[in-house]
Amino acid sequence: MCEKANDLCNPAGVEEIKNNLLNELDCAIAWYGKKAGQRGRFARWTRRGMIILGGVSALIPVLTQIPSPIDVVISPLYASVTMIFIATLFAFEKYGGNAEAWMRFVLAKQDLEKLKNELLISWCKFSPANNSSNDVKSALDELLRIANEKHRIVQSETKDWIKEFKSGMASTTPRTN
Question: Across the chain, where does the E strand assignment appear?
């Protein structure tokens, strides 16, 4: 293990670390992009369903008062049934937190993209190929800073998710007094 660490303290090793870090950033960016799209779609469909069913449930009592030429009777009870569907969709959204997840994922993806751009731009000022120990140390310091920031972004999003999940659990768990 020590030999491997020493191998990484030369210009080629530093370049390998940078490429690995860029690959990790690309993977994280792709993951957050994919998940943000999925959660965003689910959140929009859930909310659309609640809006449409809310309109239908408001319309049903009105329709029960309109005489039908074809003897179709609409029971006002259907308004209650649609309200049950709305409440179920609301509980799904509250429990799953898809809208909040979409926002967290979009922000995390943007932060990771910014970090990747920072690395690519800041890398221009390093020249570990000169084999100067100062250049290699500076490059390693920058790589460490970027790696730590990547970890902080992902960890922060995960902590926000845990807090949101606990909140969703608390708001959908029946209370007994």
Answer: none
Which residue has 């932060």 as its token pair?
111
pLDDT in tens, 41-83: 999 999 999 999 999 999 998 888 888 777 777 888 889 999 9
Boundaries of every domain in the chain:
10-172
| pLDDT score recorded for residue 39 | 93
Cα-based torsion angle of the residue sequence 38, 40, 43, 44 in order, rounded to the nearest 10 degrees: -120
For 31, counting Cβ atoms within 10 Å of its Cβ (0-12 exposed, 13-18 middle, 19+ buried), the class is: middle
74 CB-side CA count, 13 A: 19
Can you give the pTM of this predicted structure?
0.72
